[in-house]
Design brief:
Structural class of chain B: mainly alpha
Helix content of chain B: over 70%
Radius of gyration of chain A: 18 Å
Number of strands of chain A: 0
Structural class of chain A: mainly alpha
Number of helices of chain B: 7
Oligomer: heterodimer
């Protein structure tokens, strides 16, 4: 990858994050959505029948994908206003750097929501998540990379369809299955106090997913641009 | 970087020739009827499962052909992004649609068999889960196709999703498989590579050939429909 690609990507990411930082609309709605989800899920189960320690990992990662979708939806619909996308495409930068920049901004967004959601799960479910902060951060990062890699590509595609945002969950959610299952399983191992090595297989699966889909989606992205 | 969109041309028009009688379709329907006759009358009951086992002769061929159909979608997608030939996109479109139908057959016949044999309509066995997600992926693929007006854009997006979908399948399989092995459940009877008696194997093979012919006939029909639609859109100047 040329150094130009990366610097252009960082520039685009900075632009998206600056917009988000100034308006803060998407971040707040995603964060509030995540908190609401965490609270509602708690009441969806009978706490005397299902221990909250069994519930927490699934809720955490289920909510993670849904709140992630909120950020991803905005990623390219942001560029639809005044056809800003045309300026982006006209810029003397590679297509890959557009994808990479959008993905980096989405990664920051999704991770920031996690920074709020993880302590919230610890608080509301009374589970010792932050005790395992290092491993949990690794799980969160690997999941976020996979989610963002696929989600950014589909976000670019969805805005050009008649269904727009409605299409994104239908396309994305099957692709999030191999993210949610390993992340939730690895987290469950952590909470059960099992040695970290037991979750290693799941982490490897996440890493493999990330590698395959970052490469595949970056290669596919130039085909998703409407010119 | 965009794929050139090849408009429907004279060669396309040639591919739209209507034949009065669809011999392939007729043969495939006869083959299915013959296979069913053999399943019902000339294949012995399985000793333990009884008549319920006979659904296997529909279930497995449909599953194999569904997998093949989705393989065709991915390959045609790669081909389209490479060559930009709309004929490949029509092949992908047709194969995906027939593949979804076959997967639906698998998902309907499976529970019908599982109820008497496993005692439950559904269980989160690795193979069942994978089939269900296959269905979701390719229903999503068809929804995507329906949501794009522009012909070339539709072809490109479908190709991208068709390829990514095929990359996803091993990951879903691996994660649901690990999920199951790490969480042992109450033992369910699992068909672990049954060594079939010869007459059952013959029936299965006949049924598989019949289903494959049926798959080809349906895809061919669907492909013709897609060709005519593309030609019509071209004539309407869209």
């Amino acid at each position: 990858m040329a150094p130009d690609t990366l610097s252009a990507a960082l520039l685009i990411a900075r632009k998206d994050l600056a917009i988000e930082f100034r308006t803060r609309t998407a971040f707040f709605s995603a964060a509030v959505f995540a908190l609401l989800g965490i609270v509602i899920f708690y009441f969806a189960w009978d706490p005397t029948a299902v221990a909250s320690i069994d519930l927490a990992p699934g809720v955490l990662w289920g909510i993670f994908t849904f709140s992630g979708l909120l950020g991803l939806q905005r990623s390219f619909s942001l560029e639809q206003a005044d056809r800003a996308i045309d300026a982006l495409l006209g810029a003397p930068i590679s297509r890959e750097s557009i994808y990479l920049g959008k993905a980096i901004a989405n990664l920051v967004f999704v991770t920031a929501v996690q920074v709020i959601a993880i302590p919230a799960v610890e608080l509301f479910y009374g589970v010792p998540l932050l005790e395992h902060a290092a491993v949990l951060a690794l799980i969160a990062l690997l999941s976020a990379i996979g989610l963002v890699a696929v989600g950014t590509l589909f976000s670019a595609m969805a805005v050009n369809t008649k269904l727009a945002e409605m299409l994104l969950p239908v396309l994305s959610l099957p692709f999030f299955v191999p993210i949610v299952i390993p992340a939730a399983q690895a987290t469950a191992r952590l909470l059960a106090g099992r040695p970290a090595a037991e979750g290693l297989g799941w982490l490897k699966l996440l890493l493999a997913f990330d590698i395959v889909f970052v490469v595949a989606c970056m290669l596919a992205f130039p085909y998703t641009i409407e010119e | 970087m965009t794929t050139p969109s090849v408009p429907a041309t004279a060669t396309d028009a040639a591919s739209v020739q209507r034949t009065g009688f669809d011999w392939l379709f007729a043969i495939s329907v006869l083959a299915i009827a013959a296979a069913l006759a053999r399943v019902i009358y000339y294949t012995p009951f399985e000793a333990v499962q009884g008549p319920a086992q006979k659904i296997f002769y529909l279930h497995l061929p449909a599953a194999l052909d569904a997998f093949m159909a989705f393989g065709v979608v991915a390959l045609a997608g790669v081909g389209y992004l490479w060559l930009g030939d709309l004929r490949l996109d029509r092949a992908a479109e047709s194969s995906a649609e027939v593949g979804v139908v076959f997967t639906t057959v698998v998902l309907v016949t499976g529970p019908l068999w599982a109820r008497p044999v496993w005692g439950t309509w559904w269980t989160w066995d690795a193979r069942l889960t994978l089939t269900l997600f296959l269905w979701f992926i390719y229903v999503g693929y068809l929804v995507l196709r329906g949501a794009i007006e522009d012909r070339a854009l539709r072809a490109r997006y479908s190709a991208v999703l068709g390829i990514l979908g095929s990359l996803l399948i091993p990951f879903i399989h691996l994660s649901v498989y690990l999920f199951r092995t790490l969480h042992p459940r109450p033992i369910v009877i699992k068909p672990s590579a049954p060594s079939l008696p010869p007459e059952m194997l013959t029936t299965l093979s006949i049924s598989f050939v019949a289903f494959t012919l049926f798959y080809l006939a349906l895809v061919r029909q669907r492909y013709r429909l897609a060709s005519e639609r593309d030609l019509l859109e071209l004539e309407e100047g869209r």
